[in-house]
Structure formats: structure tokens, C-alpha cells
Prior knowledge:
This protein has 574 residues and is an alpha+beta fold. 32% of the residues lie in helices and 26% in strands. The chain has helices at residues 3-9, 20-28, 47-53, 57-60, 65-69, 84-91, 154-169, 174-185, 237-242, 262-274, 310-344, 396-415, 420-434, 523-537, 542-553; strands spanning 32-36, 42-45, 70-71, 95-103, 109-119, 127-134, 192-198, 204-213, 216-219, 225-227, 248-250, 278-285, 290-298, 355-361, 372-378, 384-391, 440-449, 455-462, 468-470, 476-478, 483-484, 498-502, 507-511, 562-568. Strands 7, 8, 9, 10, 11, 12 and 13 form a 7-stranded antiparallel sheet that branches. Helix 2 (20-28) runs antiparallel to helix 7 and helix 12 packs across helix 13. The N and C termini lie far apart (87 Å).
Amino acid sequence: xxxxxxxxxxxxxxxxxxxxxxxxxxxxxxxxxxxxxxxxxxxxxxxxxxxxxxxxxxxxxxxxxxxxxxxxxxxxxxxxxxxxxxxxxxxxxxxxxxxxxxxxxxxxxxxxxxxxxxxxxxxxxxxxxxxxxxxxxxxxxxxxxxxxxxxxxxxxxxxxxxxxxxxxxxxxxxxxxxxxxxxxxxxxxxxxxxxxxxxxxxxxxxxxxxxxxxxxxxxxxxxxxxxxxxxxxxxxxxxxxxxxxxxxxxxxxxxxxxxxxxxxxxxxxxxxxxxxxxxxxxxxxxxxxxxxxxxxxxxxxxxxxxxxxxxxxxxxxxxxxxxxxxxxxxxxxxxxxxxxxxxxxxxxxxxxxxxxxxxxxxxxxxxxxxxxxxxxxxxxxxxxxxxxxxxxxxxxxxxxxxxxxxxxxxxxxxxxxxxxxxxxxxxxxxxxxxxxxxxxxxxxxxxxxxxxxxxxxxxxxxxxxxxxxxxxxxxxxxxxxxxxxxxxxxxxxxxxxxxxxxxxxxxxxxxxxxxxxxxxxxxxxxxxxxxxxxxxxxxxxxxxxxxxxxxxxxxxxxxxxxxxxxxxxxxxxx
Length: 574
């Protein structure tokens, strides 16, 4: 049976599509590579692999990689128990082989070296990257050729660059990106990793100094901190890198001369404190500016860096620059958004004999703002207004719409002495004509003391998840009456009102759907989860109750923002 005939007998199955980020990573690898899912089926492949194996990507994707490709020395299918690649795959560890056999689409047998490593990043969890390279005799090294990256093979270099891309592009946190960067450099390339960053104020900050001791990365915080400014005329290696001029090799002797700047003094101190005998320094650049410099240093490793090592260090620094730039832009946007959200969402008013607390959690992948909101404010007749709502979306546009709805509700509630349903009817009519909000849900309520230790609650519900009332004894039930259509439908129907009595020690919870919706589960599952945890936590102080409720109930796969408003009637009404 030919290799092509064998390939046709291997069963193909549907697989989840690879993410766009994974596809980009594979295309950037300069040799054949593919990625398999947790079952060993190919989910993505690059053009180099298509050319090497002779199969199209459409044919490869969905096939079990071992069954389709891996062969014994005589071309026969290789038993899985004898496959070292399969064993490494199941163990979730990195492994490589200098020579193995793979099937080509034309029936011939390929002799390839391979490297397999777990892939971590973004939406492609539990995947494994396989890098292939034609096997052959090791090239003879010229007597004057210098060692490259502590004897890294070409396959290992490609795999390192691929891992660098996947690791650094899958986070938008600067500190996490730096942690991953030094973990890629140390100990594979160096004994030390140093990152100097240029801040928004054009100051230099030595952000990371890390040394490997055994298998542990040790941060030398005593060597981190502020640095002197970048000298514009200095020709010393770090100064040139921080100006984005060039990558350079250096050693202690480089800084033996009279220092020409404060940075040169700090570098002399760095060499003395670390014992490094050889370093490679490369600029960390984004597409817009120089962000800093990466220094890889060797102290215990006897082989010094050579000029042939610089391209690899530069490639790593270049990928780090793109990742850090994206993370910085995201954090700036996040700071602006957080400030905006803090101004949009109100502080809880002080209501005698009533406890109030609120929380807002943004969508995990959004801009820290969204359409979920809460509000509580006093009314002219001495009662207190409560509101919780959700404007469609979780971005700046949704947040702007949320602010419009909240402010209009406040104006109507303050100026019109009417039941909650009538206030929301007025709001619904206005939303359709003077805002950009298309759809929204909300609960609007009034609460006031009844004089006997209880509190009287009246409300109307416009398409929102129902309030949850928990007694002091842990009896929890949803207030399902007073339910009407969501805002923005244009139906013009009359809205219902509902009332309830809140006994002493009881707790009322208003929340948005991000707290209970979980992909793959019905809404009833989320409602039941909230009810059970709220009943179990009701004995805790209100702030702790609210925090623990969010932590326990919010689904891990939640991709929506969450607002929560909780109030508690003290025991005895005082």
C-alpha cells in the first residue's frame, strides 16, 4: 500500500478551527510546523509543512498526526507504543529527535528531525506545536566559525522564536510580558537577563535583573530601579541600544575606560555585581519608538557570546518590543476607561438604618467599561431609589449609552412623584428618540421604612433578571413579579408594578446577567447557583457577602461585565 493510499484510509474528523493568532505564528516560523489538539489531531499547518510533506493543509487538518504521518524505518505504520513523539505528547513535555521517518504524499519516506513542545496562548489551550526539519549529516564547522547561542541547533532556534511569539503575544500585561521574556532567555541562552525600559517621561528604569540558580530564576531587586538619562552622544553599548542605534556584544573590559555617562557607571556596577564575562545587548523597539533594551549575560556559562548570536537576540527583542507596545497601549486605554467608569458609576448614598453596597467587574476582554450599571439615590419624599441595568454591549459606546439612561432615570425619578412603572414608561419613550441606545434591561425600585422594623419595596422589571431576596435564616427566593418588556422595543405596553416586604436582617441582591450566564448551560443553572451561594453567605457582613458572591458565582468562562447592588435591612430595623 502506498503512502497516499494509507493516508486515504486514516479517518479524518472535524476539529475546532485554529485561532488567527496561531495561524500567524505558524506562518512566521521559517520551517515546517503544525499544531495538534489535545487528541493529537492536526488543527493548523504552515506552508513549509505542506511543501515538505506534499499534503495540502485541507488534507492535513483533521487527521491524527501520528496515524497519517509517522512511520517506521521501513515505511510501515509505527505502533504508538514505540513512538517517542507520541509519548512526549501525552506527557505534555518538550522533546526532540535528530532523525525519524514520515510519510510523504507521493508514497516516499522522509527522514526528518523534529521538536515537539506544548503550546500555550490565547484561545488555543491544550495544544502542541511540532516543528520539522530535513535530517541530514551535521554540517562541518569551519575552524574560525564561532559557536551560536550556546550550541542551539537551527531547529531549536526556530522553536525558541516560535515560542517567543506565542508567549509574548498572548498577554496584555507589561509585568507578565517581562516575566515571560526573561523566562525565554534564561537559562536557554544566558545566565542573566536584564531589561531596561524607557518610561512615558523618557526616563530609564531597570525593570528586571534575573539570574538562574539551579532551576530557579532569582530576581536581583537590589540592581533594579531608576537609571540615569540616555546620553545622546555616548558610544557605549547600552546607551546605543537605548537610542535604538545597534545591537552590541560587550564585556567587563568594555567599561574599564573612564565612564562617559551615568549609565556607563551603572553598567560597570552591574558587571561587578553579577560577574558576567560576556553580554549581548539589543534594542527593544516597537513600530513607533524605542522602548528599552534587552541584555543577555553569561557568568557561569564559559562560552562567550559571538557575533553570530546577535540575530537571535535581536529577533527576541523585536518580538518583545511589539508585545510590550501592545501591552502599554492596552494599559493606557484601560486606565482612561477605569477613570471614566469610576466617574460614571456613583457612590452609595447613606441611608439611615439600611446598608448598601455595590460592585462592578468589567468584561475580561473588553476595555474595562461596559453597559452594565447600578444606581441608588434619595428621592424628595424620603424614600430611596434603586436601579440596576444593562445596555447592550461592553465597550465605550455602551458605557456612554449607560450614562445617558442613568442620568435620564434620575431626572424622571426626582421630578415625577410616580410609581416605578410610570417612571420607566417615560424613560422608555425618551430612549427611543433622544439616545443612541437600541436595547436595554433594568429594574427600577423604591424602598422606604415601614415603621415596624421592615422595609417596603416597590419595583418594576424591564426584561432584567429577577431580584433575589434572602432572609436572615438563609431562605432565598426570587421576586419574579412585576416583569415587563425590555427597553427599546417600541411596543408601548403598560408596565406592571410589584411590591414586597423586606423583614429585619434580610438581604436584597440586584445583579446583571453577567453574574449568572455561563456558555453551554441554561439560565436556570446560573440562577440556582446564585441562590444557593447567596443563602450560604448571608451570615457574612454585607461587603464580604458581596465580594464572595462575585468570586463564587461568576462563571469562569464569563465574557460579560457584571454589576451587583446589595442592600441589607439591619436586625430590628436599626
